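#lab-general

N.A. 3:47 PM
ok so I finally got the sequence cleaned up, no stray characters, all 199 residues accounted for. can someone with queue access submit it? mine expired

B.Y. 3:52 PM
send it over

N.A. 3:53 PM
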Amino acid sequence: MSALRVFLGITGASGAPYARRLVQALAAADCEVGVCASGAAIEVLATELHGDARLSRDETLARLVEGTGDAVTVYDPNDWRAPYASGSARVDAYVICPCSMGTLGTIASGAMQNLIHRAASVALKEERKLVLCPRETPLSAIHLENMLTLRRAGATIMFLAPGFYHRAESVDDLLDFVVARILDHIGLEQSLTPRWGQS
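B.Y. 4:20 PM
back already:
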C-alpha cells in the first residue's frame, strides 16, 4: 500500500502544539504531507511554540517541519498551482488543525480566498476525508450553524479537546490523545495513546 497523501492546513486559532505534533506524527507514518499555514497561523505558531510573534514566516515554518526530512512540503497560501487546489490530484485526506472560526465560516459559505479554503472545498466536492479541528469556546449560534452545515456536507468536526480517561501525565499526553483521534479518522494506524479498554 502506498503512503497516504495528506493536506494539512494551519489557521489562526490557538492550538499550535497540536499542529506541530500532527506534522511529526504524519511524517513518522511515512505520509506525503503538504502543509499550508495562513498569515494569522504564522503569528500563532510563533507565539505559542516559540514565544516570539516577530519570527519570520520562513523561520517559523522551518522550525515547524524540522526533523521531518522529505516527508513535508510547505505551500504558500496563494499557491493556486499546488496539487491540493485540484480535484484531479490524488489526495487521501485533508485536515485543518487548528481551524479558526473564520476559516470554518468561509469554507461553509463556499468561498475560497486561499489554498486552505480551496483544498477544503475540493475535499467536499470530491467526497474525500476532511477533518476540521476547531478550538474556540464558547460557541455562538453562527459557529454552530456553520459546523452543522459542514458536517452535513461530509466534513468531520473534531474539537481540540482531549479526554482524560487515559490518565495523562503530561501536556504531550493530552496532545497525543487528540492527534491519535485525527489519525484514526484519516485511516492511519497509531500507537500514540492507549485505546479504551487497553491497559
